[in-house]
Each structure stands twice: as C-alpha cells, then as structure tokens.
User: Fold this.
Amino acid sequence: MNPSPAAVYDQLCNEVRQTAMIESIQELLGWDERTMMPAAAGEYRAEQITYLSGLAHGRRTDAQLGAWLDELADSPLAADPHSPAGATIREVRRDYEKRCKLPRSLVEELTRVCVLGQQAWTEARRNDDFASFLPHVERIFQLKRQQAEAVGYADEPYDALLDDFEPQARTADVAGVLAQLREQLTPLVAALVDSGRKPNREILRRRYPVAAQETFGKQAATAIGFDFQRGRLNVTHHPFCAGTGPHDCRITTRYDEHFFPTAFFGILHEAGHGLYDQGLPTEFYGLPPGTFVSLGIHESQSRLWENAVGRSRAFWQHFFPLAQQQFPDALGDVSLDDFHFAVNDVRPSLIRVEADEATYNLHIIIRFELERAVLRGELAAADLPGAWREKYRVDLGIEPPHDADGVLQDIHWSAGLIGYFPTYTLGNLYAAQFFQQADADLGGVEPLLARGEFAPLLYWLRERIHARGQCFSAAELVAAVTGRPLSHQPLLEQLRHKFEPLYGIE
Ligand code: ZN
Assistant:
C-alpha cells in the first residue's frame, strides 16, 4: 500500500526543515564572519560555508524530494495554493525545478568567476580603473545569460534573474511601474532642488557620542517592537539583518560620531527587517509559510519603519525630546522643525547608499535600465561607464567625475547579483502602498506615532504580511492587503505629502 499524502507530506516537511537547519547554520557562520571572526580565519570559514552550501543544495535537488513532490502534486493538500501545505508544495517544487535545471558546471563556474570578480572590483574601484574590471563584468553577464537560458523565462532573460530575488515578478511589469515613477519623480526632485530652501545640515554633523547613539537606537528599536530577547544588535561596516533561527534575529549598524543619521536610520532600517523576521510564524520555521516572500517585500518592511515612520514629523514629535536628553550638547538649541527638515534633506548625489529617500529611486532605475540593456545585448559592457554618466546627467543633473563614484560604486554586478537592484525600489513602492492602506485602516497612523504608540501599526503588518509567510506571492500579497495592484502613486503621494510643505512648494 502507498503511504497516504499526509504521510508523504510529513516526510517532505521533515526533510525541508533539516535542510533549512543546515542553511541557518550557514547563516550563523556568515554572521560571525562579518562581526566577530578573526581575519586569519577567513579561508577555513569559506570552506565551511561552501561545504554546508553544497550539502543544502544536494538535499534541495535530491531525486527523492522530486518523487515526493510528484506524489503530492494532485493531492488535496496542494489544492489551495494559499494554504500552508499548498504553499509548501508549490514553493519547494519551484525551488527544486529551478535548481535541477542549472548545470553543475555553470554553478561552479559562476561561483569561481564571482569570487574573482569581487576581488577585481575592489581593486578597480580603488584605482578608478574600469578597464581592469571589464573582462570580469563581461564574463559575469555572459554566464548570467546562460543561467537565464538554462532556467527559462517568459519574455526576456532578465525575468529569470529577477525571479531569484523577486519570485514570479515580470520584468515588463517592473519596468512599467518604474517608468511611471521616474516620469513624475524627476520633476518633483527638480522642484525640491529649485525651491531654494535648504535644511541646516550642520545640526546632524555635531558630536553625537557613540554610547548615547547606541542607547538611543536601541530605545527606538525596542519602541517599534524589535524583541531583544529574540535578537541582538552588533557593529559592522556594512549593516545587515541575519535570521539564524526561529528566535534569533541579528541586526548590525555602524556609528559615525559626527553624523547622526548613519547609525540611527540604519538601526531603524535593520530593525524593520528584523520585525518581519520576528513576525514570521515560528511553527513553520524552515518551511515556505515561515519564510519571507521576496527581497522586495523584506525591503518594504525596513523602508516603512525607516522612512514612512522614522523620517515623519509625528515620529519626532515623540522622539525629539528624548533625543535632546541623550544629546544635550548637539540638540539643546535645535527646534523640532529644524531637526525634522535636516533628516529630510533632498539633494541629488552620486552615491546610491548615501542618497535621500526621494532621489534614491532614480539611482535604482538607472541601474535597472543599464543591466537590462546589457543582458538584452543592446548595450556593450564596455559602454557602461559612458551610459552611466549620461543617465546621471539627464536624471539627476550631475555627472560622476570618476568611475569609482560612478559605475564602479556597487558590489552587485561583480558578485553576479544581476536583477537585484529593482527590489530596492519595489520595497519603497510596496512600503508606501502598505502604509497608505494602514493609514486608512487605522484611522490615521500619524497621531499614533506622535504619541509613541507603534503597536497598532506593527500588529497591522504582522497580521496582513508577516503571518502569511510565502502563502502569497508579492503581487498577490499587495493585492490582498491593499485591494489593488502595485502602483507608483502611493510612493509619489507620500513623497509629495512630506516634501512639498518642507520645501515650500504649493
Ligand atoms: Zn534593507
């Protein structure tokens, strides 16, 4: 007698949970590598991580897994794609099929080329020498195109790569929303710049002692709901959030004693990621219903807390008096309005990671258009520096004097992360659309923020987004939560609502 679908499903879940355990150990080793590990341990750590990664990959492509998935395909358990079992069967199968289509030789070659690519990129950026990086970036795009061909795609190769970061998204849809956003964002940014009003940025460059920054950052993270019993905060040069177990979420930040926003908004951002991780259903840890939807949805949670909440005047109505207590020398003579304006300084700049909330998306759209054009064969990798400068001139009105501050500034292409950039702006778009809906459902979020009441917003997010894990795709989730498909409008409305009064635009 064949085992029942329920018995097969239990076996499948046990296997997948064990694979997830291996991956969580890998994640923990990665966290340690970036926060605690002595420099000399790097080589062996790479071996440890490669070993675990190979082990997990082997398990996720095991023929037995495929056989179980076949048995379950027509079972009642798979009938409702949004149920925990339906989502598990669907997502494990998606991952299994995708991995099985990739030839081992291609995976190994990509890993090798990207390790060398990152080394070459580090050197090239240091020496402002794109020519030395060119053969690497050409080879990486070539291999990524092979990857797309092996996996298959609906309309264009970019679809297959985007799918690694934003599952089930279509390039054409993303391009459509980004184009509409750009059309209205460019004149908005120009109007803010031309308004002649400028905040006093000097306020933020006074002395903010690191110990007080840490205390204040933790106070804010706790207030918005980050659970330090199930998470921690450390220092790293490149901040990140790592989920290393159902009750273990680790965020990092970096401190600049003479620039307040770096650590504070970094902590809010990573804590926003952490709130999502901590809100995923722990009983499904390691399975799709206990896993985040996509990088874009993850980023929506960090951006919502960092920008929609953390850079709002209402938030600072509550927190500014506390900030003045922590930093009496820096903020004793500063008004709430001047401080709020200073943390909302909009001006075109060359470096993506330092860009403000409004111009940031233009940096992303430029990268998306360039990598898509290279992948389509419409732009040669050798022409990237020139195309980059041209787009910055047109969209942001500035041009990088050096490639180091231009086409060489991001690690992504050297690491094979092609199709990753749009998830940053998708995150901003999702965040604005979710926030607008929360505002309507909660009868106004700002009065809550002004009173320091963050729980209603967090529970709203928990119930509608966090608790659902991967039971819905990103597009389905946006439609289910907000009643309409993703649009560029909420983000534009949010930016106008905040920036036009600040900059005196009617
Ligand atoms: Zn993020």
In short: The mean pLDDT is 96.
